[in-house]
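Many introductory courses stop at the sequence. We go one step further.
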Amino acid sequence: AAGPRIAEDQQARVLVLQQHGSRGPIEAAPAGAGSPAAGAGSTGPLPRRAHLPGAPGQAVFAAHASNNMTVREIARQPSVFFFSDFHQEMYEPFCADFGPVNLSVVHRFCQMINRTLGRPSLVHSLCVYYCDNHPAVRTNTAFLLAAYLIIEHKMSAHDAWAPFGAILPASTGEVPFDTYHDATFSTKRYGLSVLSCLKGLHKALTLRWYVPPAFNVDEYLALDDPTLADVHVTCPKFVAFKGPSPRKERVAEGVYTFTPAHYVPVFRGLGVSAVVRLNEASTYDGSEWEKGGIGLHDMYFDDCTCPPRHLA
């Protein structure tokens, strides 16, 4: 039942959390099984189940310490379907950041969980989605599964995160999930929680900034491609992009900078009417924007810093 590492959207009635590691499993107990109250201890049964309305079966999240552990769990539980994928590992860091993964990964993860757990042979089976027991991988996996609950099962961010938030720290003090780091190598002074990211996703769904049936993965990936544009539509009002340079330059394997002239047709297609330049005016000739019919506004502040109050 292990099969290849595959990921699809979970259609499951119950999401039970089960975290495995070298210190032993922390797993969910069935409702009414006498589980201790939340916060009652650092190990043992996890008193949390998340019921997913309208979907049969049940799904479990697990973090495995090694491939050998996965093999042992499959042998120990032959009636359970174990599956995984690389979606939680598909973040390309800029610096010390490790996530969260982008919207195309979230979208495809949901599609794949749905396909896998929608199989007739699995509708009433216990299915375990497992990942490597590395803090960053655990965190991105939890984000993806909670995002799935929000997108596919219309849960609030708090309800989707509740089963994961109920997992207690290890006896060593290690927390199950990390907070996200900004895209710098600086010491993390503010940790962005997974819950905050889930709230942002829920808000985007509410405002219809993200409409799953209408989401164009191919267009998103084309704009995201660092060899083509490196552009993201963050909301209907704004796009974000890597600042241009006077000439096209290779930064790394498959990564380039582009001139303003390169971006003009891309921006016209997206309905962009003005660019706000945050770096030094000497970085490139801004008149290229104006030649292309796009306005330019300078709002310089030092990289890796917050903008000063007068700019904000």
